[in-house]
Design brief:
By secondary structure, the chain is an all-alpha fold. It has one domain. The chain has 2 helices and no strands. Helix 1 packs antiparallel against helix 2. 4% of the residues are buried.
Length: 69
Amino acid sequence: MTESAPQSFEAKLDRIEAIARELEGGSVDLQRATELFKEGKTLARECEVLLKGAQEQIDRATRDEPAAG
């Protein structure tokens, strides 16, 4: 991976999409395809962690809200 790793969820997702486009193009050699796959897998795991964290924050916020009524 020659680029610096994207930091935000959106940047990570954009990079995953770029990797998918490059792989779908069919013009990458096996070595490059393997590198791209590993990078995409890592980014997908990082996105999953960020999404879980966001869900936990939402869950906490909704638990802490006073009941309407």
